[in-house]
Amino acid sequence: MKFMKLGSKPDTFESDDKFHKYAVSDLDSDVTVIVGEFTFYLHKFPLLSKSNRMQRLVSQASEENTNDITISDIPGGHKAFEICAKFCYGITVTLNAYNITAVRCAAEYLEMTEDVDRGNLIYKIEVFLNSGIFRSWKDSIIMLQTTKSLLPWSEDLKLVARCIDSVSAKILVNPETITWSYTHNRKLSGPDKIVERDENVIPKDWWVEDVCELEIDLFKKVLRAVKSSGRMNNGVISEALRYYVARWLPESIESEAASSNKHLVETVVSLLPRVNRAMSYSTCSFLLKLLKVSFLVGVDETVKEDLVDNVGLKLHEASVKDLLIHEVELVHRIVDRFVADEKRVSEDDRYKEFVLGNGVLLSVGRLIDAYLASNRDLTLSSFVDLSDLIPEAARPIHDGLYKAIDTFLKEHPELTKSEKKRLCGLMDVRKLTSEASAHAAQNERLPLRVVVQVLYFEQLRANHSPVGSVAASSHSPIPPVKKAEESIVVVEEEAAKKVGLSKKSRGSKSTRSGGGAGGPQLMPSRSRRIFEKIWPGKGESNKSSEVSSGSSQSPQAKSSSSSSRRRRHSIS
């Protein structure tokens, strides 16, 4: 830290108690200066030789036949006045980054200018500021911190602006040329960090920790000065904002601190760099945490909307854990904003958006499906509404949605038939992989109609595509939906009349079916009967193989097998 000593005489200021100070001299005190609770017993000549204001105050006191002068509004209070008074006496005083703002403001108040005496206090302070304080990174930060308590004097004297110019200019230098010391512990670094660092070189965000010690309004002024230059990477600015929030925003928000935290959040949001999806530099996790806090501290709606916009741009980077800290209504708003942004893409950017954005769409589709499967507090309406927001292109495969629907059915066994139909209507069984279809075909929680659809379309897919090829199945000819619906209706009516299977017995019976490259697979009795009704030819083929394989059986066994085949075939 830089400092400057003024004067050469020893300190002769003494006190007999906490609030009374005397300038010890051969001459008696002839003026009493009262500054707040402190009383100084001084001499007129040293004061009048350096201060225009003291000349006027002493003149006024003389006219009133008193030696008492009261000063109640001097910036810096009694400490700054004492330093100025000692300077007038020629007593040695030390100026540094911690006290120079107060002394400079007090000297301005006392009018200690060059027209009173050459080499006066204001002049000497200005020389020290330019040659010492503003050349030092740490001193500039410290001095800037002291200006807050001395407003408006520090603002009027341009001390705040000069400190900000000094700090911002140093932030913008090439890191390779830095020769001064700075703080770079990164104790608050975490998974949200944005700037990658090499331990062998000075990082681009070397300045962040020191600047984050500033009060929020001063921090805001520094960052605006840096941003306005256009020379700082937005990723580094985002890192500074993330670190500031981690440094000053408490883990739990108390009601009495809500007001100050509200101002902090609103300021940080106003400083967030945001251009478009490809150039939104803050991590989604950080933005979602900030959004959560914004609701807790009650920020303005415009601020919340701005945050929602930012989160919408980065939604593809979010995790399910990030979304689960929010109410489903807010998640709905975020997804809606994301979808709206997708629709705003102009035709000129369509190719670029297709190339770069397809992965974004798929990521969001997977994210929301995983969120639907993980959030146990969803209602049927909120589940359906949120799922409906996802564009079709975001779900080329419906396995994730099927898992979410199955989880919801597990959590809500009380759903009515119509509610299950509404829920399962979100899913296109033609977009299930063979693994998901196999699971769905045996899923007792699914409505009968859905199981029929799964079996029907899986069989058609097997006829039109190489068996087991998911990639080929996505390009298979679309099966005749009308025929499937007709078969579904027939099977549902007959199942109601004849099958009468309980939930317990549905999964307990199984038989072998000949589809699939991996060999025979077990199929529950309900699914088997449905399959044979829709595709009787395949059933006959399977039964023929059963007869062939069972030719060594006893006549009784063959008779029983034949009877069983006739029963399965007669479901009509």
From TrEMBL:
PROSITE patterns for this protein: BTB, NPH3
List residues of the BTB domain. Answer: 29-97
Q: Which UniProt keywords apply?
A: Ubl conjugation pathway
Q: Which InterPro entries does the entry mention?
A: BTB/POZ_dom (IPR000210), NPH3/RPT2-like (IPR043454), NPH3_dom (IPR027356), SKP1/BTB/POZ_sf (IPR011333)
| Annotated metabolic or biological route of this protein | Protein modification; protein ubiquitination
Record region (Disordered): 499-572
User: What is the top-level taxon of the source organism?
Assistant: Eukaryota
| Compositionally biased intervals (Basic residues) | 500-509
Biased composition, class Low complexity, residue ranges: 542-563
- UniProt domain NPH3: residue ranges: 205-461
Report the sequence similarity comment from the record: Belongs to the NPH3 family.
- What is the protein name for this chain? NPH3 domain-containing protein
